[in-house]
Write a structure and sequence with these properties.
This protein is an alpha+beta fold. The chain folds into two domains: 200 residues, Trefoil (Acidic Fibroblast Growth Factor, subunit A); 237 residues, Trefoil (Acidic Fibroblast Growth Factor, subunit A) (Trefoil), CATH 2.80.10. The protein contains seven helices and 22 strands. The strands form seven sheets. Strands 11, 12, 13, 14, 15 and 22 form a six-stranded antiparallel sheet that branches. Strands 1-5-6-9-10 form a five-stranded antiparallel sheet, with no helix packed on it. It has a three-stranded antiparallel sheet with strand order 2-3-4, with no helix packed on it. The chain is elongated and about 110 Å long. The two termini are 57 Å apart.
Length: 498
């Protein structure tokens, strides 16, 4: 079944609106730090924050940081046949994939699991406390003494969390393990240590617990031992597969936030313009500055730069300006790669250093694209292909055709005519009019038509002769070819962008 052009255009417009909505949601989540990548990073930094283990001597003491490690349990498969497997599993707090959207730190309800990560950090380090006096510090812990295991938290203002065991009244799912963290300090949080061998338990009660000694930990209420289910493994954020996959996507730039950072690194890289005081010349690095156009987000401030733009569709394909990327008015405070252009000759003659004159055709090439095999030029098509650039009439093209040619006209003044200024050199940082050679239309910006971009609101360019009742160009069509002027030659006639 074939569809007519109106249906195809409607489907294209609908898809574009959906992409714009998803892009706005991405910016909103990024500003609120609600992206899954941002939350995962906060989770890693909070839970894997290393904790120093204070040396308490030969015996375990109240108030010190301890780790509960099952030293005889295999932690991973052997790396080679016949090699000894790595052993040692540390009791750790777990934040599951469903909880990462709500919490990025240990909280009440977090499960307690055994992890092969034995490096002392917030998730596997506990503070051993006495049940009778939590402020006790430096006293030895004896076999048979009841104690509490308080989880370490990177947030000092958070409520204390204790390791607890609740007896299930009915069979629960596999992921609903009864050992977890709780903010309620009750009798279920009490634990007791016993010697490993039964023949030593009667004689061992009341003796201090030595560090690194194999022992049995029981819950005082349930009278059940804390053990490891070695056959019940579960995949978590801290597992080797998840960490490896996360690092691989970050290195390859496959995540949206990584693509956004790569785009900022490419487009917003600082650059230098050509310093000129006498006038504009060919092969000068300049910026197109609209001094009288108000900034979209701040109407009281004026001054907009013309630069390249990437939307939510282009960033998935490339993180740099390519053939077909549109241009818009950007309210950027600094000169960077995205708004720096080079004035080149439209013919095959070498005009390096030759002054640019009024009514003389020229091309505007993106400065960062001159290092490539095909430079990109500013282009305007009076009859563009549907869906090529959307509402933005200007875009970058790798073909230097006649639609890429521009010329500079002086602003109308009461004391001098344009015909008298024809052939004279174009000055720097003064009001001019940029006209398209093929259509004889003026380049301008419309502050009333704005779009959402990665760097805020942008102005849409227009190709229209905006004239007042006296046939003079309005502020939409007034531009300045901006280049930095040496300090000793700055004058009031050559204002610079602020």
């Amino acid at each position: 079944m074939s569809y007519n052009n109106s249906v195809l255009v409607g489907n294209w417009a609908e898809g574009r609106l959906e992409n714009e909505f998803e892009f706005k949601m991405f910016l909103r989540k990024r500003d609120r730090r609600e992206l899954l990548l941002q939350r995962s990073r906060a989770l890693f930094s909070n839970l894997l924050m290393e904790k120093p283990m204070l040396l308490c001597g030969m015996y375990v003491m109240y108030g010190f940081h301890v780790q509960v490690v099952a030293s005889d349990m295999p932690a991973a498969k052997p790396s080679a046949p016949g090699a000894a497997p790595q052993r040692g599993l540390a009791l750790s707090a777990l934040v599951t994939e469903r909880q990462v959207d709500l919490v990025q730190n240990v909280a009440a309800g977090c499960l307690a699991t055994l992890s092969p990560i034995t490096t002392p950090c917030c998730r596997n380090t506990f503070n051993i406390l006495s049940t009778s006096n939590e402020s006790a510090y430096g006293e030895n812990v004896h076999f048979g003494d009841e104690f509490l295991l308080r989880a370490e938290n990177s947030d000092p203002t958070a409520a204390p969390l204790y390791l607890t065991y609740t007896t299930p009244g009915a069979p629960a799912p596999a992921d609903r393990m009864p050992i977890c963290l709780t903010a309620t300090r009750d009798s279920n949080c009490r634990w007791v240590a016993e010697p490993l061998l039964p023949k030593h338990r009667s004689e061992g009660f009341g003796t201090p617990i030595q560090t690194g000694t194999r022992l049995v930990i029981k819950n005082c209420v349930a009278d059940q031992c804390l053990c490891v289910m070695n056959q019940n493994w579960m995949q978590t954020f801290f597992g080797p597969y998840k960490v490896r996959q996360f690092r691989k996507q970050m290195k390859s730039g496959g995540m949206m936030l990584a693509k956004y950072r790569s785009m900022n690194r490419n487009l917003n890289a600082p650059t230098e313009l050509t310093q000129a005081s006498t006038g504009i010349a060919f092969d000068d690095r300049v910026a197109l500055y609209a001094p009288h156009v108000p900034v979209p987000q701040n109407p009281d401030k004026k001054g907009v730069l013309l630069g390249g733009r990437l939307d939510s569709i282009n960033i998935m394909r490339s993180q740099d300006l390519e053939d077909g990327c549109v241009l818009a008015g950007l309210a950027l405070p600094d000169i960077c790669e995205r708004n720096t252009f080079v004035i080149t000759s439209p013919d095959y003659c070498t005009r390096t250093g030759e002054g640019l004159k009024y009514y003389q055709p020229f091309l505007l090439a993106l400065s960062s694209s001159l290092k490539r095999t095909r430079p990109l030029y500013i282009r305007y098509d009076p009859d563009p292909c549907p869906g090529l650039s959307g509402p933005y009439p200007l875009y970058l093209s790798g073909n230097p055709v006649c639609n890429c040619r521009w010329r500079v006209l002086p602003v109308k003044k009461p004391d001098v005519t344009r015909f008298e200024l024809e052939g004279q050199r174009v000055p720097v940082n003064q009001d001019i009019v940029i006209k398209h050679c093929g259509t004889n239309l003026n380049l301008g910006l419309d502050p009333k038509k704005c779009g959402i971009g990665f760097n805020g609101t942008v102005c849409m360019p227009i190709m229209k002769n905006c004239l007042d009742v006296y046939k003079r160009e309005e502020f939409n069509n007034i531009w300045q070819i901006y280049t930095p002027v040496p300090d000793d030659q700055v004058s009031q006639n050559n204002p610079t962008p602020t």
